[in-house]
Amino acid sequence: MQPVTSIYRWQGAVERAAEVLLHIKTRSSLSAAVEARIRALHSYDVPEVVVVPVSAGSADYLAWIRGETD
Questions:
Q1: What CATH number is given to the structural domain containing 34?
Q2: Which of 11, 19, 30, 61 is the most exposed place for a label (fewest CB within 10 A)?
C-alpha cells in the first residue's frame, strides 16, 4: 500500500501526515457497523469515515459484493 500525504487542520494547527487510504466495500445496511468498528480500532479521535453510494456498476461485481456480505 502506498501512503498518501494528508494535510488538515486539527486543534487550530495545520497538520501534515503520511496515512494509508483504506477502501472498504460493503452494503449500505452494514455501514454503521463498519464505522463503529473503525472507531473502536483507530488511533485517531476523528477517523475519516466516508460512505460513497454506488449508483451503478458491473452487475456481476455488485452481485459478488452482495453475496460476500450476506
A1: 3.30.70.120
A2: 11
Which pTM does this prediction carry? Answer: 0.81
Alpha helices in the chain (DSSP H): 31-41, 59-68
Contact 7, 18 (CB under 8 A): no
Indicate the number of domains in the chain: 1
**What distances in angstroms separate CA 40 from CA 5, 30, 46, 55, 62, one per listed residue?**
24, 16, 11, 29, 28
Low-confidence ranges of the chain (pLDDT < 70): none
Q: Would you state the pLDDT for residue 57?
A: 96
Parallel, antiparallel, or unpaired: how do β-strands 4-10 and 13-19 relate?
Answer: antiparallel
